[in-house]
Write a structure and sequence with these properties.
Layout (H helix, E strand, L loop, with lengths): L18 E4 L4 H12 L6 E5 L4 H14 L4 H6 L5 E3 L7 H4 L1 H4 L4 E4 L12 H16 L7 E5 L28 H16 L5 E6 L1 E2 L14 H10 L1 E2 L6 E2 L1 E2 L1 H13 L7 E4 L2 H4 L1 E2 H12 L9 E2 L12 H5 L4 H17 L6 H5 L8 H11 L5 H5 L5
Parallel strand pairs: 1-2, 1-4, 2-3, 4-5, 5-6, 6-11, 7-10, 8-13
Antiparallel strand pairs: 9-12
Helix pairs in contact: 1-9, 6-7, 11-15
């Protein structure tokens, strides 16, 4: 970093930070950081970390990157001068760090409250704080790309599948959860109110596990599959498809979109698409094989969302001790997404030269093995913060 940009107590670097990553202590952001480090970009990175001090922030970052199997040698190359203490709920750091921010060339914004609960910070972080951050970055003359991570599910219901990229959104009250509503709203505000921001939006589909590490870093959403097969019931048919990608594939695609000198579009799905999507029946067979058991197959029973309550009597016997109300609420939420039966078109991404993703069935086994000592109710906590 330039001496002007080195904070007291930081370790100087000969290479100015050029890429700012938010959300690096989370699941997707951690995988993005791991990929950037693996590709040799350590010295050029700056991280936003929620912490009281840069030392604490660096420790948090390293702890998360260990879950993503980053080598200890690479972790020790990270230093406190690469940490900006702050978050998107309280944005006072934007002014104090403005000089450093104005030197950046790329931003990958993974930070968000990614919860399907009624978390009161969803809107303040995902919309208001993110907009304040984006507005500040729109004033930079050096910034080449502001890559914002959205969600493919912000398209709302009643779209033809495969869903194509579109800037049109349903009203917030038609979104399935507050999270998707917030992600749609921030995209709208940035596009309409910040014309000078070099905005590119990437919308991942359903991110589950890691193709080599399984659920080591996060059990997010994988518990839904575990629960459905344990209960031998859910609201979809086994021949319906689901669009799932691993976090490491998503991270690699994000980095490619952030660093590619030119892009054909400003909006991309990162998804399985038609070619890599799997049916629930295929996932059932792969899941059972990994467990050393017979597939659910003909024992499977489709139930309506209205009748999910009838499964409650089997919860404790099949999934372990859990709060029945929370389990029912979770099943209803996820059944809403499953019932959409969406695939998300990924041709734009492929046309940029980014490889197709692996199929979920290719790595279900590592997700199963990495979850063996974690109960289903414990894994649920990833999504109900």
């Amino acid at each position: 970093m330039n001496s002007d940009n080195v904070l007291p107590g930081s370790t100087p670097s000969s290479i100015p930070a050029s890429l700012f990553l938010t959300g690096a202590t989370g699941f997707l952001g951690g995988s993005v950081a791991a990929h950037l480090i693996e590709e040799g970009g350590t010295e050029s990175l700056l991280f936003l970390v929620r912490s009281e001090s840069r030392e604490q922030g660096l420790a948090r970052l390293r702890d998360n990157l260990r879950l993503h199997a980053v080598m200890e040698m690479d972790l020790q190359r990270l230093h406190v001068g690469q940490i900006i203490c702050g978050d998107l709920l309280e944005t006072g750091w934007l002014q104090s760090e403005r000089q450093r921010l104005m030197q950046l060339e790329q931003v990958i914004n993974c930070a968000a409250v990614a919860s399907f609960s009624k978390n009161p910070t969803i809107w303040p972080v995902n919309v208001e704080g993110t907009f304040t951050f984006a507005r500040t970055m729109s004033e930079s003359v050096r910034l080449k790309r502001f890559l914002h991570v959205g969600t493919a599910m912000c398209c709302g219901p009643d779209r033809p599948s495969p869903v194509r990229e579109s800037w049109e959104f349903p009203p917030s009250d038609e979104q399935l959860v507050d999270y998707t509503a917030s992600k749609a709203e921030i995209e709208r505000r940035m596009r309409e109110e910040l014309p000078s921001l070099p905005l590119v939006v990437a919308r991942p589909s359903i991110v589950v596990g890691h193709s080599r590490l399984g659920c080591q870093a996060s059990g997010s959403i994988f518990w839904v599959f575990r629960m459905g097969f344990a209960l031998e019931s859910f609201t979809c048919d086994l021949d319906e498809q689901i669009d799932v990608i691993p976090v490491d594939y998503c991270a690699q695609a994000l980095v490619a979109l952030a660093l590619k000198p030119s892009l054909e579009h400003s909006l991309y799905h990162i998804s399985a698409g038609n070619e890599a999507a799997c049916t629930f029946g295929e996932i059932d067979r792969a899941f059972a094989h990994a467990q050393g058991e017979e597939p659910v197959g003909e024992r499977y029973r489709k139930v309506s969302a209205e009748n999910l309550r009838e499964l409650a009597n089997n919860f404790e016997a099949r999934i372990g001790k859990a709060n029945p109300r929370l389990v029912l609420r979770a099943l209803r939420l996820y059944s809403g997404f499953a019932d959409l039966n969406y695939l998300f078109d990924n041709q734009r991404l492929l046309d940029e030269g980014i490889a197709a993703p692996p199929r979920f069935t290719d790595y279900v086994d590592v997700c199963v093995h990495s979850s063996r000592n974690v109960s289903i109710p414990a894994q649920m906590q990833w999504d109900f913060k």
